[in-house]
Design goal:
Keywords: Hydrolase, Metal-binding, Metalloprotease, Protease, Zinc. The chain has 636 residues and is α/β, with parallel strands linked by helices. The chain is 50% helix and 6% strand. Strand 8 and strand 9 form a beta hairpin.
């Protein structure tokens, strides 16, 4: 921010958007999670009369056992491995094993799940994806030092389980993993829609009929069932490569994946092989403490059940009403901006306005979450035990997979992925339903407080919501219509102008330097978020100013900030809510993968594109926050 011309700041230190002491925003989710974790750690009340609480507490407590009490989990896992034929088994086939472990949550070579169709709104389809690479940087598999360390990791875990495996067997598992990593890395970005029948016909080396029968989707008509391949190249190459690998090696690799998936459930000595691998790769990653790990297990495996117990108490009807008003005011501003846009033709403008009018807001959680008994019902027949977290997880995962598959045939008018939303610290624009979704954790301090002045409400949560609304009209949102269908609703000439305006954001981000690495951001990678950042803060500011003019309410001040105008407080609230903190060792990776700018770059670029900011803070022409008119990027 510019320090010039601030009223009555005395000796108070200037407030910068990235000052650590201003940290807030998504960090508030940690407090939200900690509160609910503490409930479980210290024991939920009334569990003797509340089935939901008893179920959650049993699941959580079974996870928190000490090392001595977790020894029996080793036996459980080894028994499961024996059920699959054990190491180096030549009996049975690997397809059965892959399907069984898939249901248990261990993705051996691929995952099969259910997701919303990219082309037909409100329709779920099967989605096939590559396996998750254990080492996120797939290039490391070609590094001899990493290769040796990874083999030690494989062998170390096997040895702790007393599973006999030769060096050649370990090498074969690593080579198989390396091959899969390479075809994952080299695969196409973007999915491919095909039919189940065509997929099976092309996949001659893999018995997909057997696999799909095991995961209960064998009754779908082959030639009428549409599926999505998230990485078609991967599956094409998997079909070619699989015949070059011994069946025993494939089964060993699948069992290895099963072990890595559940190793943290075992006694803490099973963490050592991974710690050694991390040391070799100079990674600062650490295991969570047991309570944090177990809390995440609860929210990951039982997201809706755990949410039903405490989330509805976090938001009042008054807050919902207040947030809905903010949302509608933001839409009114964007409507006006679209109507005034000189670069859009009338027909495209009309369709954009219709999409905006149709856009809905979903706050916090679905109404069904208020019925705790109904939320628990799918798990009622499970017999959870305090003695084995592993068995509890396996039981729950099987039910969750069944619920996932049911989406293919059950009718529903709610297509929000609520299990992901309810425990997140985020807001979302949902492309396939044209809805803005707010997680409950966003609806409290420091992002929202109904008792604080309007500059806080609009500068913090208001700007977040406006950001998500703008996503409906960024480079990705522009490809979906008001119903969430993938459809071109633009006149060619207008879309070309949209592309040209987008190029400004690309160039601006490309020339922005991340200070800790001194490397430039990727403008194309961050394009959608930069459009939403820029539009979001401007829409929120206009809505705030309109609200102040309309209400004529007495201007409230925050103690210690009486000398700042409401306009300045809006921008300071925006900066406060947007700040985050990142450990230095994560910066380089985030620069390569994050779709957002981060640190001061994210705030500064959005505010540079809003001349009103420089005017409010009295920035001089030579200040970095002041751009020439032709340098300002703006679409919405």
């Amino acid at each position: 921010m510019c320090a010039e011309n601030q009223e009555n700041i005395d000796s108070r230190p200037k407030i910068l958007p990235t000052d650590d002491y201003m940290m807030a925003g998504r960090e508030s989710g940690r407090d939200f999670a900690k509160t609910s974790m503490d409930f479980l750690t210290y024991g939920l009340e009334d569990r003797d009369i509340d089935k939901t609480r008893d179920f959650l507490q049993t699941f959580f407590d079974s996870c928190r056992k000490n090392d001595e009490n977790r020894e029996n989990e080793i036996v459980k896992l080894k028994n499961m491995i024996q059920k699959f034929g054990g190491i180096n088994s030549l009996s049975g086939n690997w397809e059965d094993l892959a399907a069984e472990t898939l249901i248990l949550g261990a993705d051996s070579m691929f995952t099969i799940n259910v997701a919303l169709s990219q082309t037909v709104a409100g329709k779920y389809i099967l989605t096939f994806s590559p396996f998750e690479i254990l080492e996120k940087n797939s290039g490391h598999y070609e590094n001899p030092i990493f290769a040796e360390a990874f083999k030690k990791y494989i062998g170390g875990l096997m040895k702790l389980l007393d599973l006999e495996m030769s060096k050649d067997d370990v090498r074969d598992i690593f080579e198989f993993e390396r091959r899969l990593a390479n075809i994952t890395r080299n695969g196409m970005i973007g999915g491919k829609l095909t039919t189940l029948g065509e997929f099976k016909t092309n996949q001659t080396q893999i018995n997909w009929t057997k696999i799909l029968k095991k995961v209960s989707v064998d009754k779908l008509p082959d030639h009428q069932t549409q599926i999505n391949l998230t990485n078609p190249y991967y599956f094409e190459m998997l079909n070619c490569k699989i015949k070059e690998v011994k069946p025993a090696t494939i089964k060993n690799a699948i069992i290895w994946r099963l072990i890595t998936t559940f190793s943290q459930v075992l006694p803490s000595k099973f963490e050592e092989p991974l710690n050694e691998l991390r040391k070799t790769m100079k990674s600062n990653a650490k295991f969570e403490n047991r309570n944090e790990f177990c809390y995440k297990q609860v929210t990951t495996h039982l997201p809706m059940v755990s949410a039903s117990d405490f989330i509805p108490t976090y938001i009042s009807d008054e807050s919902r009403s207040n947030i809905s008003e903010i949302y509608n005011n933001l839409k009114t501003v964007l409507k006006s901006r679209i109507q005034k846009s000189s670069w859009m033709d009338q027909e495209t403008q009309k369709k954009a306005l219709h999409k905006l009018e149709t856009m809905k807001l979903r706050i916090g959680f679905p109404e069904s979450l208020l019925d705790k008994e109904k939320t628990l019902r799918p798990y009622e027949k499970l017999k959870l035990s305090n003695n084995s977290f592993l068995e509890n997880v396996w039981q729950v995962r099987k039910v969750n997979y069944e619920l996932e598959i049911l989406k293919l045939t059950e009718k529903s008018d709610d297509f929000i992925d609520w299990p992901t939303v309810v425990h997140s610290v985020n807001a979302y624009y949902h492309l396939h339903t044209n809805q803005v979704v707010l997680a409950v954790s966003m609806l409290r301090n420091p992002l929202f407080n109904a008792d604080l002045p309007k500059f806080f409400q609009y500068g913090a949560l208001g700007a977040f919501i406006a950001h998500e609304i703008t996503h409906g009209f960024d480079t990705q949102g522009a490809s979906f219509d008001e119903f969430g269908n993938l459809k071109n609703w633009w006149k060619p000439a207008t879309y070309q102008k949209f592309v040209e305006k987008s190029q400004c954001f690309i160039d601006q981000a490309n020339s922005t330097v991340e200070p800790r690495t001194t490397k430039n951001f990727d403008g194309l990678q961050t394009l959608g978020e930069n459009i939403a950042d820029s539009g979001g803060v401007q829409i929120a500011f206009e809505a705030f100013m309109a609200k102040m003019r309309e209400s004529g309410e007495k201007k409230l001040k925050l103690e210690g900030y009486e000398g700042f105008s409401d306009e300045k407080m809006f921008f300071m609230s925006y900066a406060h809510a947007s700040c985050d903190h990142m450990e230095s060792h994560k910066v380089s990776k985030r620069l390569k993968t994050d779709q957002h700018l981060f640190g001061e770059a994210r705030l500064n670029n959005a505010l540079k594109n809003f001349p009103k900011f420089a005017k409010v803070f009295g920035c001089k022409p030579e200040n970095q926050m002041v751009l020439e008119k032709e340098e300002v990027c703006e679409i919405w």
